[in-house]
Amino acid sequence: MGKLAVQKYFSFTILIVTVLLMVFTITGLFGGDVNPAGNTARAMLVYALPLLIAGNVVLLIYWCIMRRWHWALIPLITILCCIPYSTTLYKFGSTDEGNSKSGIKIATYNVAMFSRETSGFIAQDILAEMKRQKVDIACFQEYNDQSGNRKNSDSYKEYFPYMATGESDMVIYSRYPITNFKNLNFEMTNNSAMWAEIKVGEETYRVYNAHLETTGINRTMHQAGKLINQGMEVQSNALFRAIYGNYTLGMIARAGQANVLAMDMRESEVPIIVCGDFNDVPYSYVYNTMLGDKVDGFKECGSGWMYTFRGGNKKVRIDYIFHDKSLEGVTYYRRDLTYSDHFPVFMKIATPASAK
Q1: What is this structure's pTM?
Q2: Are 102 and 355 in contact (CB under 8 A)?
Q3: What is the pLDDT of residues 258-293, one digit of tens each?
Q4: What percent of the chain stands above pLDDT 90?
Q5: Helices 69-81/49-65 angle, 10° precision
Q6: Handedness of CA 226, 228, 232, 238 (dihedral sign)
Q7: Residue 232 neighbours by CB distance under 10 Å
Q8: How far is the C-alpha of 54 from the C-alpha of 44, rounded, in Å?
Q9: How wide is the angle at C-alpha 262 spanned by C-alphas 52 and 316, nearest 5°?
Q10: Rounded Cα distance, 242 and 216, in Å
Q11: What is the β-pairing status of strands 178-185 and 319-323?
Q12: CA distance 160 to 142
């Protein structure tokens, strides 16, 4: 086979890869439109979108170097289609955390049970951060009210005089009166959600705090580690199947939980703010269902690279604040606190009440 024939064969192979990558990427962009139950493969492509986009960038560079401009259009068009998705993870510009525009400050934080420490130091340090950020409403997941022989709520109530508790590890603290609240329990799991209706001036807002099903990866890896420490052999293919199986089950469970919340949100007669640890990535079925016709705070007024989970080598965005379209976002940012495997997310929202 001559050199020219080899080059043509190689270019044809790359062209096939280019077309396949385009198909997988576009399918991934719409993977969140279908319930993972019965559509697992399509739904899983959403999680591969960053890698798929990176692959399209590499192919775009390759075709430009080869001066095959017509083939370069394929990855270029694909990348352009991914811009709306990319803005859920990265936005140019800088965030003015100290923006003086009036509004209510919301925080969501998975506090990981305050590491179960008994001195109360972590709980108090997080409270101090809430004060520094001038937070008006704080939504905590994996909350633990007991630190040794003291209750964390006893010290929090000086700054947050109002409090609504959910199922076991869920709480909403507020500097504004809480007029009503409701727990939303999910079947066959310890995860749950809640909402509280909070009166700010003459306006009332329903604030949701959600902690959806975990991925199951950490639990699987922990169990595998215990078996290895006991001298038992864990085959890599068996571990992969266990991880994939648990992740798939978690994905389907989260989808069902998101549907429950979406139905509850439709019954609200007041503007909605949604906070929490969704344990899922942007453009997934859970993200799309929880977002509905609301506004993603980061896309509206965030900046830089947004990730909220810092466990291991995984840097993904799974904690969110959404709000009703009748409200306006002012700032959206995270703080790099190290008390949990999550970072807290903060958002200031301008409201008619706060503008008076």
Answers
A1: 0.89
A2: yes
A3: 999 999 999 999 999 999 999 999 999 999 999 999
A4: 71
A5: 160
A6: positive
A7: 9
A8: 17
A9: 30
A10: 9
A11: unpaired
A12: 18
